[in-house]
Amino acid sequence: MDVKILPDFLNGSVNAIPSKSMAHRALICAALEDAALENKQTRIECDGESKDIKATAACLFALGADIQYENGVYFTRPLKRTGNDTAVSLPCGESGSTFRFLLPLVCALGQNASFVLEGRLPQRPLSPLYEELVRHGCILSPQGANSFRAGGKLTSGVYSLDAGVSSQFISGLLFALPLLDGDSELRLSGQIESFPYIELTMSMLKTFGVKTGFNDAAFLIPGRQKYKSPGAVRVEGDWSNAAFWLTAGALGENSVTCEGLDLQSRQGDRAITDILSRFGARVEMSGRSVTVYGGKLRGIDIDARDIPDLVPVLAVAAAAAEGVTVIRNAGRLRGKESDRLAAVSSVLKNLGADEHGCAAHSCSAHSCAVRITDDGLVINGGGGRILTGGQVSSWGDHRIAMAAAVASVLCREPVIIHGAEAVNKSYPCFFDDFRSLGGSAETVN
Fold this sequence. Notes:
By secondary structure, this protein is of the alpha/beta class. It has 2 domains: 2-17 and 237-443, Enolpyruvate transferase domain (UDP-n-acetylglucosamine1-carboxyvinyl-transferase, Chain, Alpha-beta prism); 20-234, Enolpyruvate transferase domain (UDP-n-acetylglucosamine1-carboxyvinyl-transferase, Chain). 29% of the residues lie in helices and 26% in strands. The protein has helices spanning 20-31, 51-62, 96-109, 129-135, 167-176, 195-207, 239-251, 272-279, 311-320, 340-350, 398-407, 430-436, and strands spanning 2-6, 12-15, 42-45, 66-70, 73-77, 84-93, 111-117, 138-140, 147-152, 158-162, 184-189, 213-214, 218-221, 232-234, 255-259, 282-286, 289-293, 301-303, 323-328, 354-355, 369-372, 377-381, 390-393, 415-418, 440-443. The protein starts with a strand and ends with a strand. Residues 357-365 have low confidence and may be disordered.
């Protein structure tokens, strides 16, 4: 699907969609509730679905959980933890969270499974989780297979992970290890990436009565634990996707308000409010809403270690900011649904930014240039509507497609996004909400 956007500022109010990160975790914990306990159904309020959330629900259903989605609510009854020699097929789609969360889990359950992987998911990193699972009793297909088979039975003990590769590896083990017969220790080395996502996992585990102890370098996880449903869970608004609208507000002439956000959320991408303020935008927060007003933006330094999903849209803000913006600690974005550093650079260049091999500060005023570094991006913004427009690819990546749509605000001519259906991965109604804020987005193919 190709979408043509006529450049214009966005303004108005939009409701935040449910947090994909929180929905994954709530569904998994609800499916793991001890079936022998009195409360056998969990009501998960999630007003909207995406391809990734559907993938997790479909996999849990295949594993034996009873999951029904009706009128914005997942009604979830737990799966039976009996193990099965017959491999079940688990349709992960392109969802890295689904695959990486459920792989340790099926091994802990002693369930043979075949994970069906699409897009770039088979090529995305799986080490060192892969080696630790094998070391503790799992039998796994070679890495890179589109149909990835897992068998064996996970054993308790000491696990070691480089915490700088993916927080999803840590979360996957945190779901699985409490189910084992013995206690386990998960030792971490290196700099922890995306720690707020780990905190989100710990919080959901606590909601379901599962205990984890953590110090600076290790988790201590008692075995033989039982997941206990609280009865109902509400999935809060998604800060990662709200960031696109809030950034559009910072680029415009009026303001954009996003409703339904928890201002005290554990989601790391809540940092968008602080970052936009540092860019120079005016940000107002009240109750469950955030409003961002357009203003004169200036380049800043951004550490993306805990907020990798914000990088595509922050790069768009950087293009509009006067001076240099440096985005650091974002090297692992090369292993996402696309190589997001290359994709962001390509989108900006196709819309009129220059590729600059020299130091960004040497770029002329009132232009935009972008340069990829070893671990991020350097963007010299020209201020205001400094992009021309043109045709860009989504790279099959939802966040690149959405960033390109927001970048149209900075353009003087129309923008055509090829492969715009990529937004369905996390935000199926993205272009509907784009139009509700005054944007013009027409499907042309």
